[in-house]
Amino acid sequence: MTRDTAELYGLRDRGILAPGKKADVNIVNWEQLRLGLPELAFDLPAGAKRLIQRARGYEATIVSGQVTFRDGESTGALPGRLVRGAQGA
Is residue 62 a contact partner of residue 24, using CB atoms and an 8 Å limit? Predict the structure, then answer.
């Protein structure tokens, strides 16, 4: 999320890499970046289906300083939390 978008939605703890801010970052290998073919997944409640499309080239996703995905696979770390509206000043 860019700084302008974060500020627009009142998310004052993100949008830039700086001390005290959330460190949500995707590390992308541009030469390896590719989309896979769309596929059906039946992992919603009651076996409902959804369409998913995986991507390659995302080396890591870091949320609040913890690696949550490495090479497209979950690490099991879940440091995020639900954000409900704008944050106080």
Answer: yes
pLDDT, tens digit (0-9, with 9 covering 90-100), for 44-85 = 999 899 999 999 999 999 988 899 999 989 999 999 888 887
Cα separation of the two ends of the chain:
19
Distance CA(65)–CA(79), nearest Å, equals 9
CA angle 15, 17, 19 (to 5 degrees): 115
Tokens of 52: 């998913």
> Cα 2 vs. chain centroid, distance in angstroms?
13
**Domains of the chain by residue range:** 22-74
